[in-house]
Amino acid sequence: MIQNRRSHLFSSESFSGIVRSLFLQSSPTGSTLLFPIPPTPLPVLILQGCSYMNRVTMMEPASATNAWVNTIDSKNPEVIAKASRIIANNIYCTLSTCCVDGSPWVSPLFFAYDDNLNIYWSSAIVSKHSQNIYNNGRVAIAIFNSSVSEGTPEGLYLYGTASELKREETEKVMKLLVNRARRQVNRTIADYLDDSPRRIYQFQPQEVWVSGDRLPIDNSNVLVDTKTQVNLLELRNSKLI
Description:
It is a single chain. This protein has 241 residues and is of the alpha+beta class. The chain has helices at 12-22, 42-57, 77-89, 128-135, 170-180, 232-236; strands at 2-3, 9-10, 24-27, 30-33, 69-70, 92-98, 104-110, 112-113, 119-124, 138-144, 155-164, 198-216, 223-230. The longest helix has 16 residues, at 42-57.
């Protein structure tokens, strides 16, 4: 049974009939099918979709059932501040790309970022990670400080897409890279255009996580690392970026 906003109940059969009418157009010779009608009953499809959305949007603490990902604190100011601090205090990231044959490849990169949390770096066009990006722009990035004490990790995980930077944005982004460098860099936009063997690349994040607490399993001494999903909009609006 399906319940609408007014709490009226009607069977899946009657609901199918109502929605089926939306797929048909009356004519003098009968009804014409406007769109293919799904073989699965429509109420089932709708309920399946609602169930999926509930799983996606459900806020819950880290546990074994959700791969130890905390989604309750995605807007927590302390979580946002921690993610911001990791980005601001580290100048290297690890870029993960996928080769044509499906094998993984990782590369350490000096990076800069802008107010929208787009991440930038410069690389040789023929380098393996650059070629992987031309073939498959879906990438992941990790940013972390490897000098912290064992058991106190602070890392940021990012998933999104990467591509060669548009020509008209080269000068603006080059300034971000130069300003972030801790030593003098004598480069011009010509070093990244036309016949130059190098280009600037851009990463646009779609999802972000930050390292979370280490939690005991079943009240034992065995600890497991967790992640906290970060609200991307809140992170972009953070004053610390």
